[in-house]
Amino acid sequence: MSSSGAGAPPSLLPVRAQVLTPLGWLQGTFNVPRNQSLMDFLSPGVQVLKFTRVRLPRGTETIPFVGLRRESVHLIEPSIEEDLIETPGSMGRTTPRSVGCLLPAGEVRGTLEVLVNVRVSDYLRQQANLLVLRNCTFTPEGAASGSSDVRRLRTVLVNLAASVGVAEWDAPGPNA
Length: 176
Hints:
The chain is mainly β.
C-alpha cells in the first residue's frame, strides 16, 4: 500500500469571515483547501456555501454548521491575507476604480480593480458572481454617512446576484 496520500483529503485553511445576509451579519469560518483561493472556493457552480462555527447577529451560541444559500449572501468580509483571496496573477494589469454596490441592506463603497482599458460596465458584464472590493465602507440603509453604524472593511466580496446594482463614482464620461 502506498503512503503517497493520494486518497487523503486536502489540507484546509480555516478562513474566518463575517457574512452579510438578510438576517444581518453572521460570523463563522469557511474551510478552504490550501491549494485554492477564496474566490475559487466560492466558485459560481456552488449553490450552498459550507460555513462552520457560526454565530448569528444577536446570538450567543455557536452553530457547528450552516449551509448558506448563495442568493442569501450579500457580502463576505474575509479575515485572510490579500494574496489568498484571488489567485495571484489571475487579473492581469488593472487600474483602480471607485465603485459602490447598492444592496437591499445598504451600500458598500470601495475600490474595484478593473483591467486596463476596460470600462467598468464592460467589466461587470464579464463577472460571474463575485466582485472583490478593497478599502471599503458599508453604510446600512437609512444610516447617515458619519454614523457609528458605518463599517470600515479592508476587503469585501460582493455577490452581484444579491445586489441592486453597481455605481461608478469616478466615471471618465458618459460612455463608461
